[in-house]
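Preliminary data (for renewal application), 26V complex.
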Amino acid sequence: MNDVPTPIDPEAARRPVREAAPAGAPDPGVDVKRLQKEILAELTYSVGRSPETASPRDWFVATAYAVRDRIVDRWIVDHASKENKPEKRVYYLSLEFLIGRLLFDALNNLNLTEVAREALSGLGVDLDRIRTAEPDAALGNGGLGRLAACFMDSMASIGVPAFGYGIRYDHGLFRQGIRDGWQQEYPEDWLSFGNPWEFAHPEIDYPIGFGGYVEQVSEGGVARHVWRPAETVEAVAFDTPVVGWRGRHVNTLRLWSARAGDQIKLEAFNRGDYVGALADRVRVESISRVLYPSDETPAGQELRLRQEYFFVSGSLQDLVRRHLEEWGDLRSLADHVAIQLNDTHPAIAVPELMRLLMDVHGLDWDEAWKVTLATFSYTNHTLLPEALESWPVPLMERLLPRHMQIIYLINALELDAARKRHPGDDGLLASISLIDESNGRRVRMGQLAFTGSHKINGVSALHTELMKQTVFRDLHRLHPDRIVNKTNGITFRRWLSQANPGLTSILIDAVGPEVLDDPMRLEKLAGMATDSGLHERLIDAKRANKVALAKVISDRLDIQVDPDALFDVQIKRIHEYKRQLLNILETVAIYNAMRAQPMRAWMPRVKIFAGKAAASYHQAKLIIKLANDVARVVNSDPTVRGLLKVAFLPNYNVSLAEIIIPAADLSEQISTAGMEASGTGNMKLALNGALTIGTLDGANVEIKEHVGDDNIFIFGLTAQEVEARKRRGYDAHAAVEASSMLREVLESIRNGVFSPDDPNRYRGLIDGLLAHDTFLVTADFDAYFAAQRRVYKLWRDRAAWMKASVVNTARVGWFSSDRTIAEYADDIWGVTPASR
Ligand code: 26V
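Predicted structure:
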């Protein structure tokens, strides 16, 4: 990092005040020299380092500051003046934002990547090197959190004025290590070196109450409720600007951090209890300490409920204040505010808004309810019964006594109305009730979110249909206009332009640079699906990506894989319904077949797995161990050398996804039909030219409709068939009897072929599969194995494979989250995007 240009005049270089460029115009002030000066000034005056001593992280921070400055100019234009206020804003409430790294995101959206590369290279610094110095912001578990991040990018890109609201966890999702094949969880510390993207606003804070009691006071003969919380925490704002494509719009991600209020500190200090005061403070501030690391399984802990209420209350107080400043009257809230609830995690917002409107701002019940219903909408992300959130009534009464009163009243009114329309239908009443009486009394957050929302959406066509038929069947009967479908999408800026620049430049050459603004332009590519020149370029680009992934596999696992082999990837949270086990069984089957006939002309393949298991999910952790056990045996067996490799890459996160996805040939989307709400990895992989092997589940169904039956490998039971099998009581023994291959595979695993150090390790797993195969792994095995053979048949014919791959990329433009957000804006929020 030497070869530094002549010293600069620090004063002149320091945070130059720029005229903000008019929306949409390229920033006139951006050139290499200027950015270089700005980065050096930041390095010197914000980081406090000289170029000679700066580490890659210092350079990253300096560059991030320089880039951030350019975003802030536009941010201020978008947010500064009350006169300039938008007609309507969207507030996206989510306990999770799985963001990843931001440097390339910002550079790419500002069209500054190459300028920055040159500027840094003139300083002897490699942009790609400092890119990896940025920690991943992993404030989410998986699909739901990543969707929130893609949506933030799309709202800023198509010009939907929006705030994302969430929690600024000190510790994001745990880091996964693999020791001796077992998952280990280690704490994650993304903030330990500071976060150059955020602005702390200690002056923006709201009191958040917990516990205590409710008082009724009479004001001019009107009864009013006053909640007297036992303790109060402060929610403090940290803002991150979210810059959209071409820097046209900048929105805000506002994350709340918990701070002990003066009350807590002073009382105990005054009692002379110094240690006790600080201990209280630690306890109170633990609210924003850590992300709940569970996915699709409920977390019954009180701290989780505190987190939910904490960020909901901070966010609602904040937006109510903003609305009053801008428009003066809360009766018009729904005209200017749309609040989207990302799953039920923020569902407590329904009674909280009612409380604020009535108890604090004096609206009556009917007015408040009308505003509430018109303001909220709710997205459901899972139908798995174990993931449907509910809280014990006693816990809610203790922590949120006023909210519980409001919930009871909403419930009574809803049940009354339902009783009038369907007299005597007790089943219906029990199913729509906000209180579940069947296993202890619990508040059902799904019913609460539904009842308080004017629109409820599923995240794929199939999922939305199943919502209507299952969890919300009766609520849907009562409110048939509420459930709508909004099939998920992904931001192509991150998952194509940033992750796969090689493919992106080929696409720009093939269909024109307009594709960056309008992904539907990819369609034009379908007309070139058999173009051999195009195939060659695509094969080269894919190969380069596979070489890069092979290097990661070699560096991290010391496994050598052949970049010319088929890269078969399954990357997602580890969960039984996602059926990584099915993939492992097929791996063992093909391993057995290769050993039995080593001389056959096998096509070389690499099975790549990555994903985290919830720390308490024993079965999922055992499946990780099995993948690693199989990997160890297979990778060290000379008979299959060069033909089959298995790699479980540790610590799957956004950054690792950005390396794996561009290098994939085959995308495994093999969940039990009816169980994956949508999936979004399926979209990312298809966009990057991987072919899908998958069940008719979630958005796979729509991907199949877009790419065509010939360009996807569909297998297995349909959701209806799964339902029917389960109703009849599925017996795995019949499937195993019928398939000698499956029997052999299960026996070898059961008998310790892959676990010689502990031959009984997988006995329980296999016996459990035979006794109650909840996810129908055995039922789909043969069909899956046959589908894999179809894959290899096509893979042998490289021109036919490439044709299918091109068609995949060409036809998935519809899965852009810009399209998804435009649909939300139109159908649910009633906002008109500024740039669409
Ligand atoms: C539940 C819980 C329970 C408490 C602890 C923390 C926690 C975190 C998440 C969840 C529910 C997760 C639901 C989810 O991620 N669903 C996924 O949503 C994706 C975006 O819509 C979709 O593509 C996936 O199919 C769906 O599984």
